[in-house]
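Subject: design request, 229 residues
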C-alpha cells in the first residue's frame, strides 16, 4: 500500500466560521480540526443549532470560513476561487440534502442527469436511468418532483448524488423530512451504495441510531467538536 493510500480525503485544520452582528461576533464553528480517511463513513453528530450543517457546508466549500483550511484529496479548497471549488465538487463530490433540492421543472430522470450534464459526461441519460433503477424508481423516470412522495424524491436525490461516481458524499440530515420507515429505507440505500462504490461518506445528523452505523462519530456542541468515538 502506498503512502497516498493512507492520505486523508478530507482534512480540516483550525476551521472557524464567525458572523458579525450589530451586538457581537457569533462563532458558529470553532477551531474544527480532524481528518476523514478514504472509504470511511463519518457522522457529525449534534443537536439542532450546534453548527453541524455549517461545518458540512465549509467542508464542501459551499461556505467560506473566517479562518482555517480544508483540503479535499490533497487540494486546498480555499486557495481556489468559487469556480474552482465548483469544478472540484463536480469532479469529486455528491450531495444529499434534507430538503431534497430537486428542480421542480425537471423530471426525475432530468434531475438525476443534471450533474453529468454539467460535467459534460457522456451517456448522461443512460447512466441516470440505470441509477434511478438502482434506487427502485425505474417506473418514475418521467415524473416531476410534485408527483413523487418525499421518500421517492429523496431516492431521486440519492441517484443524482451517486450518478457521477463521486469519491466523497456529503449528506445533511438526509432523513430529516421523512417518516421513520421511509427514512430507514433511504438510509439502507445510502449505506449500501456507499459500500458498493467505495465512496467516503460524511453524514450530518442528530439521530444517534443513524450515527451508530458509521465508522466514527464526531460530536459537536456550540460549534466545537467535543469528542469522537
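Subject: RE: design request

Done. Sequence follows.
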Amino acid at each position: 500500500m502506498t503512502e497516498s493510500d493512507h492520505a486523508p480525503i478530507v482534512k480540516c485544520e483550525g476551521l472557524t466560521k464567525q458572523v458579525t452582528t450589530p451586538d457581537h461576533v457569533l462563532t458558529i464553528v470553532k477551531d474544527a480540526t480532524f481528518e476523514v480517511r478514504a472509504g470511511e463513513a463519518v457522522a457529525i453528530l449534534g443537536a439542532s443549532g450546534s453548527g453541524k450543517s455549517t461545518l458540512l457546508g465549509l467542508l464542501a466549500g459551499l461556505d467560506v470560513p473566517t479562518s482555517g483550511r480544508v483540503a479535499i484529496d490533497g487540494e486546498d479548497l480555499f486557495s481556489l476561487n468559487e469556480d474552482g471549488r465548483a469544478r472540484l465538487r463536480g469532479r469529486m463530490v455528491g450531495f444529499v440534502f434534507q430538503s431534497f433540492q430537486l428542480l421542480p421543472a425537471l423530471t426525475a430522470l432530468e434531475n438525476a442527469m443534471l450533474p453529468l450534464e454539467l460535467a459534460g459526461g457522456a451517456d448522461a441519460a443512460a447512466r441516470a436511468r440505470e441509477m434511478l433503477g438502482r434506487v427502485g424508481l425505474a417506473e418514475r423516470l418521467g415524473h416531476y418532483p410534485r408527483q413523487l412522495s418525499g421518500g421517492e424524491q429523496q431516492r431521486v436525490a440519492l441517484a443524482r448524488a451517486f450518478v457521477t461516481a463521486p469519491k466523497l458524499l456529503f449528506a445533511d440530515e438526509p432523513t430529516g423530512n421523512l417518516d421513520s420507515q421511509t427514512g430507514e429505507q433511504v438510509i439502507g440505500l445510502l449505506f449500501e451504495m456507499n459500500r458498493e462504490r467505495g465512496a467516503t461518506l460524511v453524514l450530518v445528523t442528530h439521530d444517534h441510531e443513524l450515527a451508530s452505523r458509521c465508522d466514527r462519530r464526531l460530536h459537536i456542541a456550540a460549534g466545537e467538536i467535543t469528542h469522537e468515538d
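The mean pLDDT is 90.
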